[in-house]
Amino acid sequence: MEDKYSVLDFTLAEAKKWVNEVDDRPVSSRLTFEELKEKISFPLNSTGIPAEDVVKHIVDSAKDGLLGSTGGRFFAWVIGGALPSALASDWLVSSWDQNAALYACSPAASIIEETAGEWVLELLDLPKESSFAFTTGCQLAHFTGLSAARSKVLKNVGWSVSQDGLFGAPPIKVFTSQHRHGSIDRAIRYLGLGNKSLQAIKTNDLGEILVSEFERSLQEFGGPKIVVLDAADLNIAAFDSFSELIPIAQQHGAWVHIDGAFGLFARASPNKKYLTKGIELADSWATDAHKWLNVPFDCGISIIKDKDAHREAMTIQASYIASDKIARDQIDWNPEWSRRARGVPVYAALRELGKEGVSDLVERTCKYCKMIIEEIGELPGAEIIWKSELNQGLLRFRDLKRNANESDHDVQTQKIINAVNESGVAFFSPTTWENKLAMRVSVVNWKTSEDDVKKTVEIFRKLLS
Ligand SMILES: Cc1ncc(COP(=O)(O)O)c(C=O)c1O
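A: This is the predicted complex of the input protein with pyridoxal-5'-phosphate.
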C-alpha cells in the first residue's frame, strides 16, 4: 500500500526531538524579526513542492525562533505545557479531522468530549446540572458565559436579545474588578454592550473587590446587572470574596460570571480549594484547559448553570443540520460552527493525571512559585512585591545606585528581565502593579522541577551579584 503520509514519520521524529530537547535549548528565541522574515516569508511558489520538503522547511526555519514554553523554565504570562497524552491525543484529533460540531459528524468524538466535560464539572466541584462547552480559550468562554448572561438578564425585564437585538434594549451594567483581565472588556465589546457599560470596583490591599463599594454600586443601578468576579487575577492571583459578593449580587438579580482562567483549578486541590469558597454559587464560570491542565492550545471551557440560557444564547437552526438528538450537539453550546474536537486532549489529560494527579500538579507548581519568589527575593536588589497562595507572584529589582528613584527601579527591573530572557536559561514577562514595573512569576507547567527552580535562581544570582 502506498504511504501517502510518510511525511508524518519525519514530523514525529522532529516533534519528539522538540519536546524531549526543549529543556536543553535556550528558552527564548534566538532569531530576530528580520532573520525570521527572511527564512519564512517569501512569495508563494506557483508550483507545489513535496510534503516532506514543506515540513522540513517549517522545522528548519522556525526552530530557533520558538519559545521553550513547553519546558520547565518558562514562567511568563500563564502558559502551560502539554502533557504527553494530551499532546498525543491532540494529534489524533488532527488525524481524525472530525467536524465535532454534531454527534452525527463524529459519534465517538462527541462521547469523548461529553465525558470530558462531565469530568471537569466533577473535578472542579461545580453544580452537576451545569452545561459546558469547549471553546478556543477563556476569551471565548467569557463570550459564551456572558452571552447567556446578557440574554437572561434582559429576558428578566421582558426583552429578547435573540429577536430584538440590543437597539432600544434596557442598558445593562457589568460590575467587575479594577484588576479584571482585558478579555472581559473584549467579551463585553463582542456582545455589543460597549465598554462604558463596565463599572470597575476598587479592591482592597489583597486585590479583592471591596464588599461595601460593591453593594453600594449595585444599589445605585436599577437596571439589568451582570457581575464578573476574579478567581485569581493574573498578577497576584487574588480571589474575590465569593461567599460575600455572590449573595449580594443575587439579591439584586444580577448574573454572576467568574473569570477562572487558571484559578478555577485551585478547586482540584483539597489544600487550595478554600481560596474559591462560595464560587459554586455563581451562574457561569470560564476557565482554560490549555493553562493549568496542560493540554495543547487551544482549549478553553465555558460552564453555565442555567442550561436553557446557555443553549438559547448559542444554538443554531439550519435545515441541513442532521440532529438525531441522541446526544448533545456541540454546535448548540459553542460560539463556533465547524470545530475540532478540542475536548479530546482534556479527556486524555484528566485520565493521565487522575484527580490526585491534577491536585498534585496544582500544589507542586504553587510550591515552586513560592520557592522562586522567596529565593530570588533574597538576592541583592531584589524585592518581593507579591507572594500568593497560588502559582503567581511579583518581583521587582531595585537600582542600587544612590538616590535611585522608582523610575530607575522600573528600568532596572526591565533590564534584569531582558538579561534573564537573553540568557536563555529561563523566561519571564513584565507587568505593571500599582504603577510600578514588576516581573511576573507564573508557574503552570507540569514539567517544572526543583532542578528548574535551582537553575532559575542561579541565573538571577549571577546577574544580581
Ligand atoms: C485571568 C485571565 N483571564 C482570561 C484570560 C484569557 O484566556 P485565553 O488566552 O485562553 O483566551 C487569561 C489569559 O492569560 C487570564 O490570565
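The pocket of pyridoxal-5'-phosphate is lined by residues 77-78, 137-139, 181, 183, 234, 259, 261, 288, 300 (CB under 6 Å). The mean pLDDT is 97.
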